[in-house]
Structure formats: structure tokens, C-alpha cells
Amino acid sequence: MIKNNTGLSNRSKEYHAKRAIFKALSDRQWHQTIELKASTKLSSATIAKHLREMSKTQLIERKEDLESGKYPVPVFYKASNELMEYITSCNLREIFKNSINGMIDETKDPLVILESIHLNSQLWFLEILKEMKSRKDMKAYEITWLEQIFLFESYEQMISQLIAATDKIIDQIDFDQMIFAQAARNKELSEMVIEGLAKTLITNNPEAVKQTGLEPNVLLRELTAEIAKRSRVQDYQKSQNEEKSSNSKKDLPTD
Fold first, then answer.
1. Which of 31, 94, 129, 165 can bridge 35 by disulfide, Cβ–Cβ 3.0-4.6 Å?
2. CA–centroid distance for 24 within its chain
3. How far is CA 130 from the centre of its chain?
4. Quick one: which of 18, 59, 58 has its CA closest to 40?
């Protein structure tokens, strides 16, 4: 069985602390730290740390009530639109994470679930790139923090859950069948990628397409077949070169 990891446990606490604060801010209302402390059950130091980080990355709005006449000046926090999008995504990912045990019991194939986790990470990776493009003045620490909450922490939580769930039924897994199924899915994906590349070439080269004198659907079929053929030739040449390199190493004299 898998043993508990102290480092992972500490990171899990950080993850759940942030999630608790996000949940408390999900009503889009202004909140003081004392309110957040009461609703999250977190310490003042923990809340202050995360609120400071979220303010720097513009995931939350911060305002001071200077007209209150109070000292210290009351400070209020509210979730930004970006954070609300993240909270919605977090809720969906939490549902997915909590479903992993059931999916493993049903499929006996952790690679299928791993693909879904990777797809989710790719989507959030793109969101971070879009944010970087729209905010050219983003600091390195802001990007790092977005990486942590949007990618690494969520990925680590889901992978840990997947490994723990798989560990419970490890003796029921047919590794050969699982690998064959993965190869079939990869082949199907490769065919989709090749067809997508062919469509892109046709779209970006209208004059060349016109010169062929072929109907678009016929050209697409022939171009897809040609790209696939070249891909197979490249794979064959690569395997031959690797085999030659391996044989050359075997033929080297030994001391």
C-alpha cells in the first residue's frame, strides 16, 4: 500500500486552505478578514498570507473603508471575475476528483482517467497563456502563483487520488490490455491530428489548392494520406537509425 507523504500532506493543506477562501468569496460580496476567518476556520496568519497573494495577482479586489473613522482602517475583499471563473472550474474538478474511485472500479484503466486529467491541465495552461497575453505587465511571481493554483496543485490532487484509487484494485488491472487500448486511442488521435494538419494546409494555401484542379474533399483525402505516408516513413527511418546505432554500440571492442 502507498504510504503517506509529509510534503504532499502539507501541500494538500495549502490547497484546501485556498479552496476554503475561494468558497467564502464565491458570493461576490465584500468580506473582512474576521468574516473569512469565521467561515473558513483558518488562522489569521493563513488567511492574511493567501489574501496578500491573491491581491497581488488581481484574483481578488481589495478596498479600505477610509470613511469609517475606525483604526485600524477596515479592509474588505471580494472575488474578481477571473476568480469566479476559477471557482466554477474548481467545483467541476472537485466533482471529477471525487468520481475517480468509481471510474477506476468501472474501467480498471487508470490511463483513460489520466488522459482526462491531462486534457484539463492543457485547457488551464491555455487560459494562463491568454492571461499573460492580455496582461503584458505581469510579474514573474504572478505567473508562478497562477501556475500553482490553476495547474500544479489541482493536478497533484487528482493524480494522488488516481494513484490511491488504482492502488486499491492493482491486482485486477490487465496491463497488456490497458497498453493495447492506449495504443488504439493514440492511433485514432494521430489520424485526427493529421487530418487537421491537412485542413490547415488547404485553408492557408488557396492558390496552391486552385492549381491542383481537385475538389476540396478529394484534395483533403489525398493530402491526409500523403502526410500519413510521410509520417510512417519518418518513423521507419528513425527506428532504422536507432537500430543501427544500437548495433554499432554492440560491435565496439570491450576492454
1. 31
2. 24
3. 14
4. 18
